[in-house]
Amino acid sequence: MTSVPIFLTLFAMSQAANPTENCKDILQDFLAGRISSAVGTRQSINMNRAFQNFTHAMRVSMAEFKEKTEADIRMIKENKHGNGGVVFTRWGKKTCPSNAELVHSGYVGGSLYNNRGAAVEPLCLPREPEWGVYRDGTDGQKAYIYGAEYQTNTLPGYMRNFHDHDVPCAVCLIPKKSIVKMFPAKKTCYEGWTLEYKGYLMAGYFNHPAATTYTCIDEHPDTIQGGRRDENGYLFYQVEAICGSLKCPPYARGRELVCAVCSKD
User: Can you give the pTM of this predicted structure?
Assistant: First the structure.
């Protein structure tokens, strides 16, 4: 007997122009006794209690939803404008660009140029190393790491002056950025990217047995005080183009390549 009026009530609620207010009015009228003659006083009281419990649960649920939404919005804003950032290494410099925070300034280290089992990537070693369990002295059963030197004696211009000098590095943090990338054969950044530094593309000598990686050395490199002696180690030679499978033009045989390190929000 009660299903028809309840159905009609719910139908009226769904058709209301302002569902929240009209829903409340209709249910209050309904529970106030308009159909009390049909369902009886006891059932009306029970339904009124159920409605109150329902509205209380809705208020609690909406409050929790609002709180979570505001927290998510705060997190998004913090990641975009405060806590986000990206780390990169500025090879050949002791300092970072003006928009970046210096994490540490150190020495470039890597494998010896003629080691067949050499590690490929150079590292930016700290100036104040820490140690774990160790035993001094080499025993021929381990990997090695050396310093790095510029090999620029065949280059024109000011870069010749850096030949055999040891290579510094700086690890930098750029806030509010999400990515940083080195672009070879570019000294400017693509649209939407920000230039962090530019320089010359360098790698190991083509006929040395040790594998190396292409690295962007700053166009105005620094040196390490007291690091002028020719002691080799991980060696940086400028990269020049060889035509064939590499298309010329736009590239030119024997021409040294530049590079740019760029970041993006």
Answer: 0.65
